[in-house]
Each structure stands twice: as structure tokens, then as C-alpha cells.
Amino acid sequence: MIKRLCILLCLVLGAGNVAAQNIESLREQIRRAEEEIRINTQLLNKTRKDQQMTQSQLKLIQSRIRNRKNIISSLEKQIDLINNDISGKNDTVKILTAQLDKLKADYAAMIYSAYKNYKLNNFLVFLFASKDFNDATRRIAFMRRYNHMREVKAAEIDSVSKYLSNEISALDTQRAQLDQTRNSRTKELASLGKDESQYRGAVTQLKAKESKISRELRTKKAQIERAQQQIQRIIAEEARKSKTTPRSAAQKQADFELSGRFDQNMGRLPYPIRGGVIIDRHGIHTHPTQKGLTINNKGVNIAGERGAAVHCVFEGTVSRIFFFQGLNNNVMVRHGNFITVYSNLASVQVKTGDKVTTGQIIGHIPDSDNDDDCMLHFEIWKETQNLNPESWLRR
Questions:
Q1: Predicted TM-score (pTM) of this structure
Q2: Of 156, 177, 207, which one is at a domain's C-terminal end?
Q3: Total domains in the fold of the chain
Q4: How far is Cα 265 from Cα 383, in angstroms, rounded to an integer?
Q5: Which of 136, 150, 197, 299 is geometrically suited to a Cys-Cys bond with 130, CB 3.0 to 4.6 A?
Q6: For 20-73, what is each residue's pLDDT tens digit?
């Protein structure tokens, strides 16, 4: 009985630990999304004062909606996990209750049998009926085993009772957690409704100047695409240069170690703009407001306050500084065989060949009356392999 109980408890504890880890992971996703919403709202409130709605502000609202939906999705997954865990605990409680009832019934039968034998002196009769000394020794050993079985049954009852009590307590805690999670989801749904209403209002406001915006966006898109192609060409040149430039064994070892440290920081690099928000994501996607307009972003666009400082995300060496129409000044920093690119800088505070440290200011984004200009275009490459910066940055 104890062996079966141990196996059952191990299975229950194992499933519970997996559920707890999954819930903790979902809570971390929610924490990051909530932090993104907080920063997003601060930035939106600063940029919206006494201004007409801009594309940048519209993207900030859209980003907030996306994070709200992520939070709601995580909460719904939590609800499913908690419900499954509650169901599993209910099943465990039923099994334990049935086992406890059986153990109590068996123990009661043993106590009754012992009491009846005691009243009738059956144990003494049993002992004195021994044929010889060896038989008496065996009968004494039997009675000891019988008494030990009673003690074991009592211990089993105590063990199952305690675990059953703990399971019922945990069940009550999880039911309270489920109610709290459902309330959080309800609040997030209400906030999502407000954000979506604000988004529709912003779209309506921008519709009034749609033709002008469309022309500007398509012109800007063409400029940025040409600039990104030039960046890609420069990246390829850098890769060739890295392979052909003679380096000492010490330099090779230093680059190898730097690459390793950069690689180990995936998901932990700081945002290049403090309090910045990603408003244009990596990869191919449709424009949020312009039908038929497709964006192929080699990096991410991060909105920030006017003239915000741009910080280097990791130690390295400034390998190039160049200018492109559509992306202004660009700074390229090499970190071993990794490269980060900081584009759309109004000013630059470093020069080619400088050793830079994590967090060092390398320039500033434009201090423009047009919020659409107040953003950083940020790319990460591993030699000629384009990487998604969102996988590398931490919130």
C-alpha cells in the first residue's frame, strides 16, 4: 500500500511541478508585456501633447494592443493549466479519500479482532497451545508481526491523512488563484477594448490626410530599402575583410572570446534607447495602416523621446560610420563575429576604431517635431546572417 501511495504521490508532484514551471513562465511573459505597455503609455503621453496623430503614435497604440492580447493569451493559458491542475488534484483527493477509508476500515477490523481475542484470552490460548519451545517462538514472532502490522496501518492512516489535508489546502489556494487570474483577464479585456477604440479613432483621424501620408510613406519606404541594401552590402564587405585581414593568434583568441560573450547574452542585451518601444518588427509584414504596402525590415524600429540618447548594447569596436538618405547617420559596431547597426542618428559621438563599452552613448536620434522621425533603426548580424533583434534584447 505504501509503495503504491509513493508512486501516486511522485506522479502528482511531478505533474504539479511542470504546471508550476509553465505558469511561472507565463507570468514572466505577462511581466514583460506589462512593462512594455507601461513604457509605451509613457512615451505615447509625451509625444501626443498638442499634436495631431502621427504614424508613430498609431504604431505605439498598436504595440500596446498587441501586448494586451499577449497578456490575455497568457492569462487564458494559465487558466487552462490551473483548471487541469485542479482537476488532477480533485482526482488525487478522491483516490486518497478512498484509500484512507479502506485503511481505516482495515485498522478498525484489526483493532476489533485484537480486542475480541484479548477478551477471550485467545492469544494466550494460542501461545500455550504450542507443541514445543520452537513452536512457541514462532507463535510469539507471529504475534509481534501482527502488532507491527497494526502500527504500520496506523502510520499509513496518519501519512495519507496529512497528505490529503495538504492537497485540499493546495486545492483551495489554486481555486483562489483561478478566480484572481479570471479577474485579471476581465480587466485586460476591458483595457483592450479601450485601446482598440483609441486605435480606431486614430485611424479615422489619419484618414483625413491619407493620400499625403501614403505618398510620404512610399517615398520613405523606398529610401529605407535602398539604405538597407547598402547596409547589407557593407556587412558583406565587413565579413570579407574579417576573413582576409591578417590577425595575430592573440587577436583571433580575443575575437573568439568576445563572440562567445555576445552569444551568451542572447535575450539579455539592453535596449539601445532607454525607455524605447519597438514599433516596427523584424521581417516581412504589411504596413499597419496602408493597404498593399509591405515592409521588409532587416532590424527593428524603436521609438523614443525626441533627441533620445542611443546606447551601445555590448562592448566592441566601431568599425564604420556612414550616412544614407532615409536612415541618416549609421554606426556599425563589431563584437567579434557579431555586428550591431544603429541607424537614423541625428548626431554621432564616436569615431571609427573607437573601443566602446556596454551602455556607452554613441549618438542621438532626431529631435524633431514629427514623432515619426524620432526612432532608431537597429540591426544585428552574425557576419552575413541577419538576426531578429527582438530575440536578443531584454525588457
A1: 0.62
A2: 207
A3: 2
A4: 17
A5: 136
A6: 677 787 777 777 777 777 776 777 666 555 455 677 777 888 888 888 888 888
Q: Which residues of 304-327 are buried (b: 16+ CB within 10 A; e: fewer)?
A: bbbebbbbbbbbbbbbbbeebebb
93 DSSP β-pair partners: none
**Domain containing residue 242: CATH number:** 2.70.70.10
On whether both 196 and 252 belong to a single domain, the answer is: no
The values of phi and psi at residue 311, to 5°, are -105, 145
Query: What's the DSSP call for residue 246?
Result: -
- Taking only the tens place, the pLDDT of each residue in 79-108 is 888 788 777 777 776 776 777 677 667 666
Q: Is there a contact between 328 and 374 (Cβ–Cβ < 8 Å)?
A: no
Q: Which residue has the cell 532587416?
A: 298
Claim to verify: residue 293 and residue 243 sit in the same structural domain: yes
The one-letter amino acid code at 180 reads Q
Q: Same domain for 21 and 77?
A: yes
* Statement to judge: residues 203 and 228 lie in one domain: no
Last residue of a domain, one of 182, 207, 232: 207
Q: Which residues contact 70 (CB under 8 A, 6 or more apart)?
A: 29, 30, 33
Location of C-alpha cell 484479548: 118
Number of Cβ atoms within 10 Å of the Cβ of 14:
10
Q: Name the grid cell of 388.
A: 531578429
**For 240-268, what is the mean pLDDT?**
90
Same domain, 232 and 330: yes
CA atoms of 322 and 231, how far apart (whole Å): 9
248 and 196 share one domain: no
Q: Tell whether 41 and 157 lie within a shared domain.
A: yes
Count of other CB atoms within 10 angstroms of residue 126: 14
**Share of residues in the chain with pLDDT > 90 (%):** 25
Question: Do residues 336 and 362 both lie within one domain?
Answer: yes
Domain that holds residue 145: 2-207
Helix, strand, coil percent values for the chain (each to nearest 5): 65, 15, 20
